[in-house]
Amino acid sequence: MVEEGIIRGIHHTSFTTQNFEGMLHFYRDLLGLEEIFRNELIQSEILDYISGIQNTTLKNVMLRAGNMIIEIFQYISPEGKAGNPNRPANDVGLTHVCFDVVNIFPIYNRLKAAGVEFNCEPQNFKDRVWSTYGRDPDGNLFELQEIIDPSHPAMLKWD
Question: pLDDT-derived band of residue 159, with 50, 70 and 90 as boundaries?
Answer without folding.
Answer: low
